[in-house]
Amino acid sequence: MSKEMLLEIGGWRAMQEGRSLWEAGKVMSVDWIDPVLGGVVQAGTGTVNARLKLGKRLSDVENLCSCRQAREYGTVCPHVIALSLKYLEKSGKGVAGPVHRPNGAVAGPVAAAARSMAPRFPRVLGQLAGKGSKPLSLEVHLPLELGKAWKAGKIPLTVEASVDGGPTKSLDAVPVDKVEPYIVDESDAALLAMLEKMDGASVHGEAELTPAMRDVFFPILLGHPRIYVGRRKHLNVSRAAEGTRLKAELDDGGILHLDLIPASGGPEGSELLEVGNGRWRLAGEQLELLDSLPHAYEGLRKGSRTVAREGLATFLQREMPQLERHVRVEAGERLKNLQFETMAPKIRVELDGLLSGVSCQLEAVYGNESHILTGMPGQNEGMDAWVPDQGDAKRYRVRGREMERVAQRELLAAGFLPGQRAAERYTLAGEGKVGAFLANVLPRWKKKWEVKLTPRMESLLSRCEYVAPEVTLKDTGGSWLSVEVDFRSGGGADALSPTEVQRLLQTGLSHHRLAGGRIALVPTDDVAEFHEVLRDCQVRNDGGAWGGDPTGSLQKSFSTTRSQNYRSGWKRLCGLTKKRGSVGSSTLLKTILEVFWPTKWAWEKHCRRWLFWSFGGRKIKQNCPASSFVRPVW
């Protein structure tokens, strides 16, 4: 594989668009499984499964991409070009990036940087033309007795060209040296590429098609506007609207049955022309392609073929798009109703390390199978196999790649990086980063993931104490509520002074070393959010060391108004406490709310709702005692 080969099989337009996709980073994954190069390429708002099957000769190359262009026309699309360029880059073949002119414009196809990929016959599509380029149009002239020549195995043809609207002349007479590339349309670009494959380094105006050359040449003429029999008789080359059909249906056990239904004989006087892998029908001024089955499926002409459940998903992904390019496929109702579901993985993470550094292994678990996730999200993904559901013959399942990527991104957001020595492990280095992870991130992981700890990690966590704010609100009468905040561990044995907490917030740390080798972990993310909410309330400092004052320091004791003018702040505060209490937050280990219940201030009702949620839905009546507290579960 080389860039010259890609240009030859795809042409200028596919090459330019494919390079644009590659340079824009649209290739999400690439994988080589001999002889198929496969991967995922972003196209617009979605993705396509791009696949390119290689062979010993250029004529053996097949585009198996799932895009519409490849399915309907069988031409090489920009997606497989971009995929191939990514593979060449990954394998170190040195694909050069875009070349820029001093004024910032990308160099055109006639620039020196692009001449290494220039086709043998100088040509360019219209939107890429430079100054001095002239339009070129081709005509193909076939023999008057096309049917007889076809069956004889020797088809003479003549290719003529018109330059800039002038008279037609043999293609041999068109100058090719020291000229700007000619402007051609897509049909002529494909025709020139085919002529170059047939004649090698030069393009001639006359040729004689052997059966092997005929089988690959005539599909290129599909849709070409200037095909003639003799000098004047126009020939329309197209796919038959009512050609050969391939009926595909599932039985009760989920096995796929393929049956080929031949096309009708056509109008009176039509001729059926056989080729190596298909059939054409010649009727007057119409040459229609009935089918062109790949060699591997020629056996369908002799009888039915079945595909087992275990290989059905792979067949639909890789083989069916190829068949749809050669024959009209009629899918039965059961096949149309196949269900393909994405499984939701259970995420398992194994942690190991010390306070100076932690490593983890991330796994996606699907029932009895587990897959270790490595690298950046989407980096090491291959082609996933659809697994048949044993309980439903019409259902298939596949790995939840997007959910796996979300888990990988969460690791990266926590500061972990893909391991360099051990690819299956992610690493987090630095005491400050590890402390922040243990205090703020690990509790979230324990709630939604399966967290496994090595003995060394268990020893580290056994020396850690989670310290969170303990908030007390008291009704002091009048228009103010008294709020007190302390930081203590769940057991109440360890407490941090105002100075220590202030230092942690200012330095961005989340841990503090205690006596006896123990470590205090402070959820600074939650504390910062709680502090921000308090600052939205009107605060009057009463001394001490917590709370929020205009200088940004913490005050232990302060008062805040119940005035209607500060609804926004109280709404956020009470909404925060309601949310924390309802889910068992780590922020408020203990909250004491002393409120005189027959109150007239509307915003204290938000606190009532918080108590309601905190007690798990148990309704609090008006005769509730004046003092209540909540201990959310860590």
Polypeptide structure, described:
The chain is an alpha+beta fold and 634 residues long. The chain has four domains: 115 residues, no CATH class; 98 residues, no CATH class; 121 residues, no CATH class; 167 residues, no CATH class. 28% of the residues lie in helices and 29% in strands. Strands 30, 31, 32, 33, 34, 35, 36 and 37 form an eight-stranded mixed beta sheet that branches. Strands 6, 7, 8, 10, 11 and 12 form a six-stranded mixed beta sheet that branches. Strands 22, 23, 24, 27, 28 and 29 form a six-stranded mixed beta sheet that branches. A hairpin with an 8-residue loop joins strand 3 and strand 4.
> Compute the gyration radius: what is it?
36 Å
Number of domains: 4
Secondary structure: helix percent: 25-40%
Number of beta-strand segments: 37
Mean pLDDT over the residues:
75
**pLDDT < 50 stretches:** 96-118, 544-573, 575-634
Looking at this protein, list some descriptive labels.
634 residues, alpha+beta, eight-stranded mixed beta sheet, six-stranded mixed beta sheet, 29% strand, elongated
What's the structural blueprint in terms of helices and strands?
Layout lengths: L2 H21 L3 E7 L2 E8 L2 E8 L8 E2 L4 H6 L4 H13 L32 E3 L10 E7 L3 H7 L2 E9 L5 E2 L11 E3 L1 H14 L6 E4 L1 H7 L9 E3 L3 E2 L1 E4 L5 E6 L5 E6 L9 E5 L2 E6 L2 E6 L13 E3 L1 H18 L1 E4 L1 H4 L2 E4 L3 E9 L2 E10 L2 E5 L13 E2 L6 E4 L2 H13 L3 E2 L7 E4 L1 H18 L1 E4 L1 H8 L1 E12 L4 E10 L8 H10 L3 E3 L5 E3 L2 H12 L3 E3 L15 E5 L5 H17 L6 E5 L9 H11 L12 E4 L4
Parallel strand pairs: 5-9, 6-11, 13-18, 14-20, 21-26, 22-29, 30-33, 30-36
Antiparallel strand pairs: 1-2, 2-3, 3-4, 6-7, 7-8, 7-10, 11-12, 14-15, 15-19, 16-17, 17-18, 22-23, 23-24, 23-28, 25-26, 27-28, 30-31, 31-35, 32-33, 34-35, 36-37
Helix pairs in contact: 1-3, 1-5, 13-14, 14-15
